[in-house]
Amino acid sequence: MWDFLFTNVHLATMADGYGEIRDAAIAVKDGNIAWLGAQADLPPGAQAVTVHDGGGSWLTPGLIDCHTHIVHAGNRSDEFEARLNGATYEDIARAGGGIMSTVRATRAASEDELLRQSLPRVRSLLAEGVTTIEIKSGYGLTLESEANMLRAARRIGRDFPVNVATTFLGAHALPPEFAGRADDYISEVCAMIAPLAAEGLVDAVDAFCERIGFSHEQTERVFQAARAHGLPVKLHAEQLSDQRGAELTARYHGLSADHLEHLSEAGVAAMAAAGTVAVLLPGAYYFLRDTTPPPVAALRAAGVAMAVATDCNPGTSPMTSLLLAMNMACTLWRLTPLEALAGCTRHAARALGMQRDVGTLEVGKRADFALWRIARPADLSYAIGLNPCRGVVNAGVLRAPQV
C-alpha cells in the first residue's frame, strides 16, 4: 500500500535528457519514490492511501538552488546606486563596502534576527518549487558569527519544508581586525572548521579565491583543513580574474567551482577530468553588468556538468527566483532550456554531493518534486516573471507552493 499516488501527470524525470513520460503516474512510500511510469503500466491491484489527480500537470524533480548566501542581515541598495553612478565592485570593496558592509550588519544581528530577515527570501524560492537550498556562511568572519549564520540555516531546514545544505565560507573576505594579516586570518579560518564541524553545522567548505579575496596559496590552506576534517570543498573561482582556482578545486576533487567568467582552457580541462561541476550564476553577471561570459561552449564540449543557481546575496545578486536564473542562463549565455533545467535539478544535486538522493525522479530517491501548469518543460526557462508552480512534494509531504 503506497502512501499516495499522483495520476494524470506528465513526468520530466531528468534522468536522461528531459526523461519525458507522458500520461504518467508516480507513487510515494515512506518519503521516497516507490514507483513511476506510464499510467497504463500501473501494477495490477496497486493501491494508495490517497490518490491525487494531477490534472495534466507536468511534474519535475524539486528544484535545487545550489549556491546561495540567503542568510544575512541588511541590504546594499546604496552600493547598487553607487555602481550606477560609476563605481566598480572592486572600488566599493576597497573603500570598506561590499562584503564588509553586510558583515557589520550580520555581526550585529542575533541568530533569531538572521532567521527573521532571511525567511522572506527562502519563501520566495519555495514558492517556485525549490526543495533543496545550499546556504553559505561568510558574513560573520568570526567563529561566533559564522556559527550564528549556520545555526540559522539549519533551523530553516528543520522548521520549513526544504532540505538545507550548509557551506562554511569563512574565507569570504578579510575582516578589518585582520587588516594586512591575511595569512593570520586564514589560520583563524582553518581553526574554525573543527568546532563548527563538531556541532554538525558544516556540509562543505568554500572560499573566495580572487584579487580582492584570497590567494591561490591561502585557498589551498583552507582546502587542506577541510580535507583533514573529511569535508568536501567548493570555490568561488574565476569571477573577476583567472586565479587558477578551478584547477585547484579540481585537484582536491571539489564538488563545484562557481562563477567562472574568467575560466581558462586549463581550468575547463581540470574540471572535466575531476568531475567538478561548473555552477553558473547569471544573477551576479547581470547585476554587475559584466561583459565576460563564462566559457559555456568550452564547458559543454568538455562534458563538464553545468548547474545554475541564484547566488542570492545582498551585494551582487539579490535574486530569489531560480526560474529567473534559468531564463537568464538561456538568454545571456545560450544554455538550452534542457541544460537550464538539468542545471537546477540533476547537476545541482551533484554540485552538493546529493545526487544519490535528489535531482532526478527515480525509484528509491527522496520524493521531492514539483507540479507545474505548463505545456512542456521548456516553459520553465521561457517565461519571465511567471510562476506556474501549483504544488510541491518535499520528502513525501504534499504542500501548496506558498508556505
From TrEMBL:
Residues given in the record as Fe(3+) binding sites: H67, H69, H236, D311
Cofactors that this protein relies on: Zn(2+); Fe(3+)
Pfam families according to UniProt: Amidohydro_1
Domain Amidohydrolase-related: 59-372
Catalysed reactions, semicolon-separated: 4-imidazolone-5-propanoate + H2O = N-formimidoyl-L-glutamate
Subcellular location(s) per record: Cytoplasm
Positions annotated to bind Zn(2+): H67, H69, H236, D311
Keywords annotated in UniProt: Cytoplasm, Histidine metabolism, Hydrolase, Iron, Metal-binding, Zinc
Keyword field contains Nucleus: no
Enzyme class: hydrolase
NCBIfam families: hutI
Listed name of the protein: Imidazolonepropionase
Source organism of the structure: Duganella aceris
